[in-house]
Amino acid sequence: MEQHTDSIAPVERQFQAYNQHDLPAFLANFSDDFVSYRMPSPQPVLQGKAALADFYAAHRFNNPALRAELLSRTVVGNTVFDHERIYGLGAEPVTNMAVFQVEGGLITTAWFWFA
């Protein structure tokens, strides 16, 4: 049960910080060597915490309409699956499945599937 809680904690904190547009609190949950993928592409879209910070400062947290709604969360070991509805990226909400791998209390890898 402890690993289950350890896996959820950084994912929940980054989710809350995302909705508050709090970049320092958001970044505190990611490893320095974080890698992000937008599926189905096998190539990373972001590599490193600095790239994550730059992207969210310029393309997410500068948008006052941005917010996410958690539809469901599933945890399998150190992997957290968040089914989300994201508002503010376009005229209509976007459905997303975000998959986070957690190691040592930090998110190391994320995969995003958008519908």
From TrEMBL:
Molecular functions (GO terms): isomerase activity
Top-rank lineage group of the source organism: Bacteria
SnoaL-like domain span: 11-108
Coiled coil: none
InterPro entries: NTF2-like_dom_sf (IPR032710), SnoaL-like (IPR037401), UCP030561 (IPR008317)
Keyword Isomerase: yes
Keyword set, alphabetical order: Isomerase
Name under which the protein is recorded: Steroid delta-isomerase
